[in-house]
Design goal:
This protein is of the alpha+beta class. The protein is built from 13 helices and 20 strands. The chain is globular and about 60 Å long.
Length: about 450
Protein backbone atom coordinates (compact mmCIF):
# COMPACT_ATOMS: atom_id res chain seq x y z
CA UNK A 1 0.00 0.00 0.00
CA UNK A 2 2.90 2.33 0.67
CA UNK A 3 4.52 1.66 -2.68
CA UNK A 4 2.92 4.62 -4.45
CA UNK A 5 4.13 7.26 -2.02
CA UNK A 6 6.70 7.59 0.71
CA UNK A 7 4.07 9.39 2.76
CA UNK A 8 1.33 6.75 2.42
CA UNK A 9 -0.22 5.45 5.65
CA UNK A 10 -2.44 2.53 6.61
CA UNK A 11 -6.03 3.53 7.22
CA UNK A 12 -6.52 4.44 10.87
CA UNK A 13 -2.87 5.25 11.56
CA UNK A 14 -2.19 8.58 13.23
CA UNK A 15 -0.48 11.21 11.10
CA UNK A 16 3.29 11.14 11.08
CA UNK A 17 4.58 13.83 13.49
CA UNK A 18 5.96 16.91 11.79
CA UNK A 19 9.69 17.36 12.48
CA UNK A 20 10.90 20.00 14.92
CA UNK A 21 14.16 21.95 14.84
CA UNK A 22 17.04 20.40 16.75
CA UNK A 23 16.97 21.35 20.42
CA UNK A 24 13.28 22.34 20.45
CA UNK A 25 10.31 20.35 21.81
CA UNK A 26 6.72 21.59 21.80
CA UNK A 27 3.46 20.61 23.50
CA UNK A 28 -0.14 21.86 23.11
CA UNK A 29 -2.71 20.98 25.76
CA UNK A 30 -5.53 20.97 23.15
CA UNK A 31 -3.63 19.06 20.45
CA UNK A 32 -5.75 16.75 18.31
CA UNK A 33 -2.92 14.30 17.62
CA UNK A 34 -2.38 13.04 21.19
CA UNK A 35 -4.31 12.26 24.34
CA UNK A 36 -3.84 11.59 28.03
CA UNK A 37 -5.96 10.76 31.05
CA UNK A 38 -7.09 13.90 32.87
CA UNK A 39 -6.11 13.91 36.55
CA UNK A 40 -9.20 16.02 37.26
CA UNK A 41 -11.94 13.63 36.14
CA UNK A 42 -9.97 10.50 35.16
CA UNK A 43 -11.28 10.56 31.60
CA UNK A 44 -9.22 10.37 28.43
CA UNK A 45 -8.98 13.70 26.66
CA UNK A 46 -7.24 15.06 23.59
CA UNK A 47 -4.07 17.07 24.10
CA UNK A 48 -0.53 16.90 25.39
CA UNK A 49 -0.11 16.67 29.17
CA UNK A 50 1.72 19.93 29.93
CA UNK A 51 2.09 18.99 33.60
CA UNK A 52 3.97 15.83 32.61
CA UNK A 53 6.03 17.95 30.18
CA UNK A 54 7.18 20.20 33.06
CA UNK A 55 7.57 17.30 35.49
CA UNK A 56 9.94 15.48 33.12
CA UNK A 57 12.22 18.52 33.05
CA UNK A 58 12.21 18.78 36.85
CA UNK A 59 13.05 15.10 37.22
CA UNK A 60 15.93 15.41 34.76
CA UNK A 61 17.68 18.10 36.84
CA UNK A 62 21.04 17.28 38.40
CA UNK A 63 22.23 20.60 39.85
CA UNK A 64 19.77 23.50 39.72
CA UNK A 65 16.15 24.45 38.98
CA UNK A 66 15.03 28.07 38.68
CA UNK A 67 11.27 28.68 38.40
CA UNK A 68 9.65 32.04 37.61
CA UNK A 69 5.93 31.62 37.02
CA UNK A 70 2.91 33.76 37.82
CA UNK A 71 1.16 30.92 39.63
CA UNK A 72 2.17 27.41 40.72
CA UNK A 73 -0.73 25.43 42.15
CA UNK A 74 -0.05 21.87 40.91
CA UNK A 75 1.02 19.83 43.96
CA UNK A 76 2.87 17.18 41.91
CA UNK A 77 5.18 19.86 40.54
CA UNK A 78 5.69 21.29 44.03
CA UNK A 79 6.45 17.83 45.41
CA UNK A 80 8.96 17.20 42.62
CA UNK A 81 10.70 20.52 43.32
CA UNK A 82 10.72 19.77 47.05
CA UNK A 83 12.25 16.33 46.40
CA UNK A 84 15.05 17.88 44.33
CA UNK A 85 15.66 20.41 47.10
CA UNK A 86 15.95 17.59 49.65
CA UNK A 87 18.43 15.83 47.35
CA UNK A 88 20.68 18.88 47.63
CA UNK A 89 19.96 20.60 44.33
CA UNK A 90 19.62 24.36 44.18
CA UNK A 91 15.90 25.10 43.79
CA UNK A 92 14.56 28.66 43.71
CA UNK A 93 11.03 29.87 42.97
CA UNK A 94 9.66 33.33 42.07
CA UNK A 95 5.89 33.88 42.02
CA UNK A 96 3.47 36.76 41.50
CA UNK A 97 2.55 38.17 44.92
CA UNK A 98 -1.16 37.43 44.44
CA UNK A 99 -0.33 33.70 44.38
CA UNK A 100 2.68 33.44 46.70
CA UNK A 101 0.79 32.50 49.89
CA UNK A 102 -0.73 29.08 50.63
CA UNK A 103 -4.34 29.13 49.47
CA UNK A 104 -5.26 26.76 52.31
CA UNK A 105 -4.45 29.54 54.81
CA UNK A 106 -6.72 32.09 53.10
CA UNK A 107 -10.28 32.83 54.17
CA UNK A 108 -12.72 33.09 51.25
CA UNK A 109 -14.37 36.17 52.77
CA UNK A 110 -11.10 38.08 52.43
CA UNK A 111 -10.71 37.34 48.71
CA UNK A 112 -11.77 39.11 45.55
CA UNK A 113 -14.40 37.19 43.53
CA UNK A 114 -11.94 35.63 41.03
CA UNK A 115 -9.59 34.64 43.87
CA UNK A 116 -12.52 33.13 45.77
CA UNK A 117 -13.41 31.02 42.74
CA UNK A 118 -9.80 29.83 42.50
CA UNK A 119 -9.79 28.99 46.23
CA UNK A 120 -12.99 26.96 45.93
CA UNK A 121 -11.73 25.08 42.86
CA UNK A 122 -8.40 24.15 44.43
CA UNK A 123 -10.14 23.06 47.63
CA UNK A 124 -12.60 20.94 45.63
CA UNK A 125 -9.77 19.14 43.83
CA UNK A 126 -8.35 17.95 47.13
CA UNK A 127 -4.84 17.72 45.68
CA UNK A 128 -3.08 19.71 48.38
CA UNK A 129 -1.53 23.18 48.49
CA UNK A 130 1.49 23.55 46.21
CA UNK A 131 2.89 26.69 47.88
CA UNK A 132 2.50 25.12 51.33
CA UNK A 133 4.39 22.04 50.09
CA UNK A 134 7.28 24.23 48.94
CA UNK A 135 7.32 26.17 52.20
CA UNK A 136 7.27 23.03 54.38
CA UNK A 137 10.20 21.62 52.40
CA UNK A 138 12.18 24.83 52.87
CA UNK A 139 12.35 25.63 49.15
CA UNK A 140 13.47 29.30 48.87
CA UNK A 141 10.62 31.40 47.44
CA UNK A 142 10.05 35.09 46.85
CA UNK A 143 7.49 37.23 45.02
CA UNK A 144 7.58 40.58 43.26
CA UNK A 145 7.22 42.51 46.53
CA UNK A 146 10.76 41.41 47.51
CA UNK A 147 12.11 44.69 46.11
CA UNK A 148 10.17 46.58 48.78
CA UNK A 149 7.42 47.67 46.39
CA UNK A 150 3.79 46.65 46.15
CA UNK A 151 4.82 44.47 43.24
CA UNK A 152 5.25 45.01 39.51
CA UNK A 153 2.15 45.24 37.34
CA UNK A 154 2.30 41.44 37.28
CA UNK A 155 5.16 38.99 37.69
CA UNK A 156 3.85 37.35 34.55
CA UNK A 157 6.81 35.18 33.49
CA UNK A 158 6.23 31.50 32.73
CA UNK A 159 9.68 29.91 32.59
CA UNK A 160 11.89 27.31 34.23
CA UNK A 161 15.66 26.89 33.79
CA UNK A 162 17.17 23.45 34.44
CA UNK A 163 20.92 23.01 35.02
CA UNK A 164 21.59 26.21 33.02
CA UNK A 165 21.10 24.06 29.93
CA UNK A 166 17.34 23.76 29.32
CA UNK A 167 14.55 26.35 29.29
CA UNK A 168 10.86 25.46 29.57
CA UNK A 169 8.62 28.39 28.65
CA UNK A 170 5.48 29.36 26.78
CA UNK A 171 2.00 30.63 27.61
CA UNK A 172 0.97 28.29 30.45
CA UNK A 173 0.95 28.94 34.16
CA UNK A 174 1.55 25.85 36.28
CA UNK A 175 -2.09 25.51 37.36
CA UNK A 176 -4.97 23.05 36.89
CA UNK A 177 -7.10 25.55 34.92
CA UNK A 178 -4.22 26.50 32.62
CA UNK A 179 -3.33 22.89 31.81
CA UNK A 180 -6.04 20.30 32.54
CA UNK A 181 -9.35 22.12 33.02
CA UNK A 182 -11.69 23.40 35.70
CA UNK A 183 -12.91 20.99 38.38
CA UNK A 184 -16.61 20.29 38.30
CA UNK A 185 -16.83 21.17 34.60
CA UNK A 186 -16.59 17.96 32.58
CA UNK A 187 -16.34 19.78 29.24
CA UNK A 188 -13.49 22.03 30.38
CA UNK A 189 -10.11 21.16 28.90
CA UNK A 190 -8.21 24.05 30.41
CA UNK A 191 -7.11 27.33 28.91
CA UNK A 192 -5.62 26.86 25.42
CA UNK A 193 -1.85 26.85 26.03
CA UNK A 194 1.51 25.62 24.84
CA UNK A 195 4.96 25.01 26.27
CA UNK A 196 8.37 24.82 24.62
CA UNK A 197 11.46 22.99 25.85
CA UNK A 198 14.57 24.67 24.44
CA UNK A 199 17.96 23.00 24.86
CA UNK A 200 20.62 25.70 24.70
CA UNK A 201 23.16 26.70 27.33
CA UNK A 202 23.37 30.20 25.88
CA UNK A 203 19.60 30.67 26.09
CA UNK A 204 19.47 29.08 29.55
CA UNK A 205 22.12 31.48 30.85
CA UNK A 206 20.13 34.39 29.38
CA UNK A 207 17.00 33.29 31.26
CA UNK A 208 19.04 32.59 34.40
CA UNK A 209 20.37 36.15 34.31
CA UNK A 210 16.79 37.48 34.18
CA UNK A 211 15.94 35.22 37.12
CA UNK A 212 18.91 36.45 39.16
CA UNK A 213 17.92 40.09 38.59
CA UNK A 214 14.59 39.31 40.21
CA UNK A 215 16.06 37.05 42.89
CA UNK A 216 18.85 39.26 44.21
CA UNK A 217 19.98 37.77 47.54
CA UNK A 218 16.72 35.87 47.85
CA UNK A 219 14.60 35.59 51.01
CA UNK A 220 16.17 37.18 54.07
CA UNK A 221 19.07 38.71 52.14
CA UNK A 222 19.83 42.26 51.08
CA UNK A 223 16.85 44.13 49.53
CA UNK A 224 18.40 43.91 46.07
CA UNK A 225 15.67 42.07 44.17
CA UNK A 226 14.58 43.89 41.03
CA UNK A 227 11.18 43.64 39.42
CA UNK A 228 9.25 45.70 36.89
CA UNK A 229 10.98 48.84 35.66
CA UNK A 230 13.55 48.43 38.44
CA UNK A 231 15.28 45.78 36.32
CA UNK A 232 16.31 48.47 33.84
CA UNK A 233 14.85 47.08 30.63
CA UNK A 234 17.48 45.83 28.20
CA UNK A 235 17.86 45.21 24.49
CA UNK A 236 16.65 42.11 22.63
CA UNK A 237 19.24 39.32 22.79
CA UNK A 238 19.91 37.21 19.71
CA UNK A 239 21.30 33.67 19.95
CA UNK A 240 20.95 30.15 18.58
CA UNK A 241 19.11 27.04 19.77
CA UNK A 242 20.89 24.42 17.70
CA UNK A 243 20.89 26.14 14.32
CA UNK A 244 17.65 28.06 14.97
CA UNK A 245 17.91 31.85 15.49
CA UNK A 246 16.07 33.00 18.61
CA UNK A 247 15.56 36.53 19.91
CA UNK A 248 14.54 37.02 23.54
CA UNK A 249 13.38 40.23 25.21
CA UNK A 250 12.50 40.62 28.88
CA UNK A 251 9.96 43.31 29.79
CA UNK A 252 9.05 45.85 31.06
CA UNK A 253 10.55 49.02 29.57
CA UNK A 254 9.73 52.69 29.83
CA UNK A 255 7.56 54.02 27.03
CA UNK A 256 10.47 56.07 25.65
CA UNK A 257 12.81 53.06 25.49
CA UNK A 258 13.47 52.06 21.86
CA UNK A 259 13.87 48.43 22.96
CA UNK A 260 10.38 48.10 24.46
CA UNK A 261 8.30 45.12 23.38
CA UNK A 262 5.62 46.95 21.42
CA UNK A 263 8.30 48.57 19.24
CA UNK A 264 9.84 45.13 18.66
CA UNK A 265 6.44 43.78 17.61
CA UNK A 266 5.73 46.76 15.33
CA UNK A 267 9.05 46.19 13.54
CA UNK A 268 8.23 42.52 13.07
CA UNK A 269 4.80 43.36 11.69
CA UNK A 270 6.29 45.94 9.33
CA UNK A 271 8.43 43.20 7.78
CA UNK A 272 5.46 40.93 7.01
CA UNK A 273 5.06 40.31 3.28
CA UNK A 274 2.30 37.75 2.68
CA UNK A 275 0.72 36.08 5.73
CA UNK A 276 0.07 36.98 9.37
CA UNK A 277 -1.65 34.48 11.69
CA UNK A 278 -2.44 35.38 15.29
CA UNK A 279 -3.94 33.70 18.34
CA UNK A 280 -4.01 36.22 21.20
CA UNK A 281 -5.35 36.29 24.73
CA UNK A 282 -5.22 40.10 24.93
CA UNK A 283 -4.84 42.54 22.03
CA UNK A 284 -5.16 46.09 23.32
CA UNK A 285 -2.34 48.17 21.83
CA UNK A 286 -3.51 50.80 19.35
CA UNK A 287 -0.12 51.06 17.62
CA UNK A 288 -0.14 47.36 16.74
CA UNK A 289 -3.68 47.64 15.44
CA UNK A 290 -2.65 50.55 13.23
CA UNK A 291 0.39 48.61 11.99
CA UNK A 292 -1.85 45.69 11.03
CA UNK A 293 -4.17 48.00 9.08
CA UNK A 294 -1.17 49.07 6.99
CA UNK A 295 -0.46 45.41 6.28
CA UNK A 296 -4.04 44.92 5.12
CA UNK A 297 -3.67 47.88 2.76
CA UNK A 298 -0.49 46.27 1.38
CA UNK A 299 -2.33 43.06 0.57
CA UNK A 300 -1.07 40.91 3.47
CA UNK A 301 -3.46 38.08 4.38
CA UNK A 302 -4.33 38.42 8.07
CA UNK A 303 -6.09 35.90 10.32
CA UNK A 304 -6.73 36.78 13.95
CA UNK A 305 -8.34 34.73 16.69
CA UNK A 306 -8.80 36.38 20.09
CA UNK A 307 -10.01 35.16 23.45
CA UNK A 308 -13.81 35.50 23.63
CA UNK A 309 -13.61 37.09 27.08
CA UNK A 310 -11.32 39.91 25.93
CA UNK A 311 -12.26 40.37 22.28
CA UNK A 312 -15.42 42.36 23.00
CA UNK A 313 -14.08 44.66 25.69
CA UNK A 314 -14.06 48.40 25.01
CA UNK A 315 -10.23 48.55 24.96
CA UNK A 316 -9.84 45.60 22.57
CA UNK A 317 -8.20 46.30 19.21
CA UNK A 318 -10.32 43.46 17.80
CA UNK A 319 -13.11 46.06 17.60
CA UNK A 320 -10.93 48.25 15.38
CA UNK A 321 -10.27 45.34 13.02
CA UNK A 322 -14.02 44.72 12.84
CA UNK A 323 -14.57 48.37 11.93
CA UNK A 324 -16.70 49.01 15.00
CA UNK A 325 -16.51 50.52 18.48
CA UNK A 326 -17.94 49.99 21.94
CA UNK A 327 -18.27 52.49 24.83
CA UNK A 328 -16.95 51.28 28.18
CA UNK A 329 -18.95 51.16 31.43
CA UNK A 330 -18.44 54.92 31.80
CA UNK A 331 -19.63 55.54 28.23
CA UNK A 332 -16.12 56.47 27.11
CA UNK A 333 -14.48 55.38 23.85
CA UNK A 334 -10.84 54.33 23.79
CA UNK A 335 -8.41 57.20 23.18
CA UNK A 336 -7.04 57.26 19.61
CA UNK A 337 -9.64 54.65 18.69
CA UNK A 338 -9.46 54.02 14.92
CA UNK A 339 -11.92 51.48 13.48
CA UNK A 340 -10.72 50.11 10.15
CA UNK A 341 -12.29 51.62 7.05
CA UNK A 342 -12.29 48.17 5.47
CA UNK A 343 -13.25 45.73 8.25
CA UNK A 344 -11.26 42.50 8.40
CA UNK A 345 -13.42 39.49 7.63
CA UNK A 346 -10.96 36.92 8.95
CA UNK A 347 -11.12 37.92 12.62
CA UNK A 348 -13.05 36.15 15.31
CA UNK A 349 -13.12 34.02 18.43
CA UNK A 350 -12.69 30.24 18.79
CA UNK A 351 -15.41 28.04 20.22
CA UNK A 352 -14.30 26.92 23.68
CA UNK A 353 -15.93 25.23 26.62
CA UNK A 354 -17.45 27.60 29.16
CA UNK A 355 -14.71 28.98 31.42
CA UNK A 356 -11.81 28.03 29.11
CA UNK A 357 -9.71 30.80 27.60
CA UNK A 358 -7.56 31.22 24.51
CA UNK A 359 -4.34 31.91 26.43
CA UNK A 360 -1.75 31.87 23.61
CA UNK A 361 0.26 35.04 22.90
CA UNK A 362 1.12 33.83 19.45
CA UNK A 363 1.89 35.10 15.97
CA UNK A 364 3.23 33.33 12.89
CA UNK A 365 4.68 35.67 10.26
CA UNK A 366 5.09 34.57 6.64
CA UNK A 367 5.00 30.90 7.69
CA UNK A 368 8.49 31.09 9.22
CA UNK A 369 8.73 33.50 12.18
CA UNK A 370 7.06 32.54 15.48
CA UNK A 371 6.33 35.10 18.19
CA UNK A 372 5.49 33.60 21.56
CA UNK A 373 6.16 33.84 25.30
CA UNK A 374 4.19 35.31 28.20
CA UNK A 375 3.91 38.73 26.52
CA UNK A 376 0.32 39.78 25.78
CA UNK A 377 -0.04 42.40 23.04
CA UNK A 378 -0.82 45.19 25.49
CA UNK A 379 0.75 48.31 27.04
CA UNK A 380 0.69 46.58 30.45
CA UNK A 381 2.93 43.78 29.16
CA UNK A 382 5.36 46.27 27.67
CA UNK A 383 5.54 48.85 30.46
CA UNK A 384 4.49 47.25 33.77
CA UNK A 385 4.82 43.47 33.89
CA UNK A 386 7.75 41.08 34.17
CA UNK A 387 7.42 39.28 30.83
CA UNK A 388 9.17 37.13 28.22
CA UNK A 389 8.90 37.85 24.49
CA UNK A 390 10.40 35.21 22.19
CA UNK A 391 10.91 35.45 18.43
CA UNK A 392 11.96 32.19 16.75
CA UNK A 393 12.95 32.04 13.08
CA UNK A 394 12.05 28.54 11.93
CA UNK A 395 9.70 27.39 9.16
CA UNK A 396 9.62 23.95 10.81
CA UNK A 397 8.41 25.35 14.13
CA UNK A 398 6.05 27.77 12.36
CA UNK A 399 4.32 24.80 10.72
CA UNK A 400 3.39 23.42 14.14
CA UNK A 401 2.00 26.72 15.39
CA UNK A 402 0.11 27.30 12.14
CA UNK A 403 -1.48 23.86 12.59
CA UNK A 404 -2.57 24.92 16.09
CA UNK A 405 -4.14 28.11 14.70
CA UNK A 406 -5.84 26.07 11.96
CA UNK A 407 -7.26 23.79 14.65
CA UNK A 408 -8.66 26.77 16.56
CA UNK A 409 -10.01 28.20 13.33
CA UNK A 410 -12.40 25.26 12.88
CA UNK A 411 -15.82 26.44 13.96
CA UNK A 412 -14.61 29.88 15.02
CA UNK A 413 -17.19 32.69 15.11
CA UNK A 414 -16.10 35.38 12.66
CA UNK A 415 -17.03 39.02 12.34
CA UNK A 416 -19.46 40.82 14.63
CA UNK A 417 -20.95 37.97 16.61
CA UNK A 418 -24.44 37.91 18.16
CA UNK A 419 -22.74 38.27 21.56
CA UNK A 420 -21.04 41.51 20.46
CA UNK A 421 -24.24 42.78 18.82
CA UNK A 422 -26.15 42.34 22.08
CA UNK A 423 -23.43 44.12 24.02
CA UNK A 424 -23.36 47.01 21.55
CA UNK A 425 -27.13 47.38 21.74
CA UNK A 426 -27.04 47.53 25.54
CA UNK A 427 -24.33 50.19 25.46
CA UNK A 428 -26.12 52.22 22.78
CA UNK A 429 -29.21 52.29 25.00
CA UNK A 430 -27.09 53.49 27.92
CA UNK A 431 -24.55 55.75 26.21
CA UNK A 432 -25.71 56.67 22.72
CA UNK A 433 -22.56 56.93 20.59
CA UNK A 434 -20.27 57.32 23.60
CA UNK A 435 -17.69 60.02 24.35
CA UNK A 436 -14.23 59.91 22.79
CA UNK A 437 -11.49 60.01 25.43
CA UNK A 438 -8.65 62.45 24.84
Amino acid sequence: MAGCSADAQLLGQSARPKPLPKGIELAFNHAETSRYRSPINGQWRQGDDLEAFVLASIQSARREILVAVQELSLPKLAEALAAKHREGLTVKVVLENTYSSPWSEEHPADLAPHQRTRHEQLKALGWGDAVAILQRAGVPLIDDTADGSAGSGLMHHKFMVVDRAVVVTGSANFTPSCIHGDPGADRSRGNVNHLLRLRSRELAHTFAAEFERMWGDGPGGQPDSRFGLGKGGGAPQQLLVGQTPVTVLFAPHRRSDPHQGLVVLEKLLAGTRKQLDLALFVFSDQGLGNAMEKLQQQGVNIRLLADPGFANRAFSEVLDLLGTKLPDHRCGLEAANRPWQRPLESVGTPRLASGDKLHHKLAVIDNRTVVTGSFNWSPSAAHQNDETLLVIDSPQLAEHFTAEINRLWKGAELGITPRLQRKQERQRNRCGSGVQRS
